[in-house]
Amino acid sequence: MDELNNSKILLKKAVGTISKIEKSKPITTATPQLINEKSWKDAEPGVINSGELKKMMYSAIEADDYLGKTAPTHKLNKEQAEEFCKILFQTKKHIDKILKEFGFEITEGAPKLNENSLYIVGNKKTLKNLKNIEPNLNIISTEGVLEPEDMKIINPKINDKALIGIEKKCNIVKNQINDLINKVNPSTVVVVVDKNNNADELIYNSAKKHWNAIKIDIETILD
Predict the structure, then answer these.
(1) What InterPro entries does the record tag this protein with (predicted)?
(2) Contact in structure between 174 and 189 (CB atoms under 8 Å)
(3) How far apart are CA 68 and CA 130, in angstroms?
(4) Which terminus in the chain has less CB density within 10 A, N or C?
């Protein structure tokens, strides 16, 4: 209960800050646009998803931090804009899940997994997660980098003897991917990348060179 009360206080403070900023800006008139055919009057009886509500509140507080970080201009560079919008998308996702409990069907904004594509992931955990979303997905796990020299980037202390074994493994995996491409004839080769995993970016660079692959961030697919 204390956490919820603290969240309410912080949210009120955030709204107050935003209100002050809005009052200081020149008034502009914009043409209203229809976002959704439904309104709040279409709500059906339901149960408040307290977990998602709390997550939404914390996301809103996190977004509010950017007002202080970027004062007084509130201008964001490319990296800041991506991080800020990521928070907003997360907030929207929580709101959508809350609204769903009251009869509102929300179209998910995350990219859909395409059965006509071939997905390359760096580990079996990600493979399993994506298969849970789309069981018929064409997907393969590399269980590591695709080039032996990339292993030196991950582990500079690796010895040459170990690299020989890694080179054999890399060749086997690349042959497996080539076989899958010949079998499936995918419209696109997609590498699913976790930005916190350096190996994923190296896998993407290799896949781009060999199969003209594109990449998507795992966070845009998984909650």
Answers:
(1) MJ1481-like
(2) no
(3) 38
(4) N
User: Cβ distance 121 to 139 under 8 Å?
Assistant: yes
Helices (H) and strands (E) in the chain, counts: 7, 4
pLDDT tens, residue order, the chain (223 aa)? 455 455 556 555 555 554 454 444 444 433 333 334 567 788 889 899 998 899 889 988 988 888 888 888 889 898 888 888 888 888 888 888 888 888 887 655 445 688 899 999 999 999 999 998 888 999 999 999 999 999 999 999 899 888 999 999 999 999 999 999 999 999 999 999 988 888 999 999 999 999 999 999 888 787 5
Q: With 0-12 CB in 10 A as exposed, 13-18 as middle and 19+ as buried, what is 35?
A: exposed
Tokens at 143, concatenated = 């269980």
- DSSP label of 74: T
Extract the tokens encoding 221: 């697919």
Give 193's strand partners.
Answer: 217
Q: How many residues does the chain have?
A: 223
Tokens of 90: 């997360």
Residue 47 tokens read as: 């149960």
At 219, list the tokens.
């966070």
